[in-house]
Amino acid sequence: MRVHTSFRRCGWRSGGLVTEVKVGQNYGGMVLTEAYAMIELKADGVATIKMAGVTGTGTWTEADEENKIVVTIEGDPMTMTCDGTTIEMDMEGIILVLGVDGGNGNSADGGNSSNSGNSSQESSIYAGVYKFYALRVENGDAVTEIKAGESYEGMVLTEDYAVMELKENGSASLTMMGVTMTGLWEEAAEQGQIVLTIAGEPQTMTCDGTTLSMGEQGAIFILKK
């Protein structure tokens, strides 16, 4: 058995009030996407949890109680409810619900995920989904490169750490550590560059249709299709 799940909704109770935030909705100033939380359970008993771009690996087993599993990360066991379609985990009073990818309720919009707008008929070479490939950090004359799957400042940078989607209709979305921002994009006057505008702030990026590079405070993020 191999199960891969991603975030669907979270909820908590405060007094008699129950609050629920679903995927795509805003909480605490950020949009919670499917990539905000993911769990993968492999047949060999290996488990992987990704939360806000941070990855933890460990083990999992079936619990004695029906529809329960125990996931152990860094020696800390967590009992979760798993019915084969969803996984529910209690994070200090906040219940996270993750849905099995490819199963019932594959995405929050009924199967039309954020990437479904891209098709093989795209006319622009720039349009598409770019995922994190590497981070280059400049410190004086020294340049350090951290690739996807490697650790940086105590966390493993996965492909979902940074995701950029450029749609054919000119809309764009940038997800960083599970937080999504939306805006617009257009081809720049100079070949091999695009202009991304989010919250009214334009930013010029290098893009050749396969690799996208963007700089921020001495760091260069490299994303690839």
How would you summarize this macromolecular structure in one to three sentences?
This protein has 225 residues and is mostly beta strands. 0% of the residues lie in helices and 60% in strands.
How does the SSE layout of this entry go?
Blueprint: E1 3-14, E2 17-22, E3 26-27, E4 30-31, E5 37-41, E6 46-51, E7 54-62, E8 68-73, E9 76-82, E10 86-91, E11 94-100, E12 128-139, E13 142-147, E14 151-152, E15 155-156, E16 162-166, E17 171-176, E18 179-187, E19 193-198, E20 201-207, E21 211-216, E22 219-224
Word description of this protein:
By secondary structure, the chain is mainly beta. It has 2 domains: 3-100, Beta Barrel (Lipocalin); 128-224, Beta Barrel (Lipocalin), CATH 2.40.128.280. The protein has no helices and 22 strands. The protein has strands at residues 3-14, 17-22, 26-27, 30-31, 37-41, 46-51, 54-62, 68-73, 76-82, 86-91, 94-100, 128-139, 142-147, 151-152, 155-156, 162-166, 171-176, 179-187, 193-198, 201-207, 211-216, 219-224. Mean pLDDT is 81; it is low at 103-123.
- Write the CATH architecture name of the largest domain: Beta Barrel
Q: Mean pLDDT, nearest integer?
A: 81
**For the report, how would you describe the main beta sheet?**
8 strands, antiparallel, barrel
Low-confidence stretches: 103-123
Overall geometry comes to: globular
**Category by helix and strand content:** mainly beta
Q: Please work out how many helical segments DSSP would assign.
A: 0
Q: In CATH terms, what is the fold-level topology of the largest domain?
A: Lipocalin
Helix content: under 10%
